[in-house]
Amino acid sequence: MRIVLVGPPGAGKGTQAAFLAKNLSIPHISTGDLFRANISQGTELGVRAKAFMDAGELVPDEITIGMAKDRMEQPDAAGGFLLDGFPRNVAQAEALDEMLTGAGMKLDAVLDLEVEEDEVVKRIAGRRICRRDSAHVFHVIYAAPKVEGVCDKCEGELYQRDDDSEATVRNRLEVYHTQTEPIIDYYKSQGLLVTISALGEVHEITKRAMDALKK
């Protein structure tokens, strides 16, 4: 299967992408991984992307599209893939369609993880990270530490990242609504959109997604 995963920040796309890719035996291709791999390997696209990133500028669509195209042409993606974070806007969605059509392929589904904005803010703004070990992550509501502000595992100080502040989260949501949300209507018009609720336990959402994709 060839699937695009969409949804607002905080919808759990990364978590669901990993489970779905494993269940479907297809590679999980995320924009973040593409950028990290190309930059660390020093590819032409990676060097160009890093120059924009170091200057604090957005990486142009053509670079992101080029990275995605290279990755989708790898042998392990011949039988399908799950795209997470790409396409990010309608221009990228149109470029993806052109790539697939040129290769004699097409998307099977676009899975939209739906979650209310207030829930997104609650999920992200409630995260607390350990200063000693960033792998120790807590949540003031869903995974509260035994002692407020103290890591259960190493007693390090827990803090809220700047990226997780409510103001930053709402700004990220605004960017999502403006740039990415239009691709939902784009794919809906093609009959590819499958929308599921992203509320509940991780395994419940995965099952919901798998059932929807089977249909």
UniProtKB/TrEMBL annotation:
Q: Which residues cross the membrane?
A: none
Q: Which GO terms describe its biological process?
A: AMP salvage
Q: GO terms for molecular function, please?
A: AMP kinase activity; ATP binding
Is the keyword Cell division assigned to this protein?
A: no
List every stretch annotated NMP.
30-59
* Reaction catalysed by this enzyme: AMP + ATP = 2 ADP
Q: Which InterPro entries does the record cross-reference, listed alphabetically? A: Adenyl_kin_sub (IPR006259), Adenylat/UMP-CMP_kin (IPR000850), Adenylat_kinase_CS (IPR033690), Adenylate_kinase_lid-dom (IPR007862), P-loop_NTPase (IPR027417)
**First-listed, main subcellular location of the protein, grouped into a coarse class:** cytoplasm
Keywords from the named record = ATP-binding, Cytoplasm, Kinase, Nucleotide biosynthesis, Nucleotide-binding, Transferase
- Is this entry keyworded rRNA processing? no
Q: What is its EC number?
A: 2.7.4.3
Q: Where in the cell is it found?
A: Cytoplasm
The record's Gene Ontology cellular component field reads: cytoplasm
Which positions does UniProt annotate for AMP binding?
A: T31, R36, E57, L58, V59, G85, F86, P87, R88, Q92, R161, R172
Pathway stated in the Swiss-Prot or TrEMBL entry: Purine metabolism; AMP biosynthesis via salvage pathway; AMP from ADP: step 1/1
Q: Name one Pfam family in it.
A: ADK_lid
Please indicate which superkingdom the organism of origin belongs to.
Answer: Bacteria
Q: Which residues form the Adenylate kinase active site lid domain?
A: 127-163
**Where does the chain bind ATP?**
G10, A11, G12, K13, G14, T15, R127, V137, F138, G200
General function of this protein = Catalyzes the reversible transfer of the terminal phosphate group between ATP and AMP. Plays an important role in cellular energy homeostasis and in adenine nucleotide metabolism.
Q: What is known of its domains?
A: Consists of three domains, a large central CORE domain and two small peripheral domains, NMPbind and LID, which undergo movements during catalysis. The LID domain closes over the site of phosphoryl transfer upon ATP binding. Assembling and dissambling the active center during each catalytic cycle provides an effective means to prevent ATP hydrolysis.
Quaternary structure and partners: Monomer.
Q: Which family does it belong to?
A: Belongs to the adenylate kinase family.
What is the protein named? Answer: Adenylate kinase
State the organism of origin. Answer: Streptomyces katrae
